[in-house]
Amino acid sequence: MSAASLEVADLQVSYDGVPALHGVSLKVDAGKIVALVGGNGNGKSTTLRAIAGLNAANAGSIRLDGRDLVGVRAHQRVPLGLSLVPEGRRLFPRLTALRNLELGAFARENGAEVAASIDEMFDLFPILKERAQQLAGTMSGGEQQMLAIARGLMARPRLLMLDEPSWGIAPKFVTKVLDVIQRVNERGVTILLVEQNLHKALGIAHRGYVIQTGRIVMEGDAQSLLHDDGVKKAYLGL
Q: How far apart are the first and last CA of the chain?
């Protein structure tokens, strides 16, 4: 499967009638890592959830390889190549790591291919092979995050969305997780990364967007944004 492109135009989302996104537009070219950064409560997770189909859009378009996803249900977007690793991981804590991986392939029917994908995940995340029969809820935060990413990859996405992958994990695991994200991208998966840590996100991304109070306020090459004083001011809400 080839990497997918994503184009979001004038996306508007509300919660109980209160606007949360005010015409968000962004583009993720196939095969690239794009970071969406901003402080808490500015609309990062809402944007990902709307793209995934978990939040209804009031207006705007969401196009995956040119196909508009508005009106396509969340579970129907997965076979099209879209996968979301949610904030907080949302694993099944009373199931083993292996069973969590198997559930990530719910939309796939070929058992042999699913088994091959599990082997690929064990190759990409060696710690998961060691923890295969361990209950997910008893694993460390960093191990759980790796399991969450691996579960997302079990759907064989062409575009993987990651919501705060460094959330709640030890610094040593943050570096490992970011390294894995780059390796996944090198394998031909497009990445849309939401991350509160400005430097870590833009450090691995090709392009970045800064969101503030539900609006995109800056965009550009990731390295240029990383060294832009205006980004820091917008990011900090100054």
A: 43
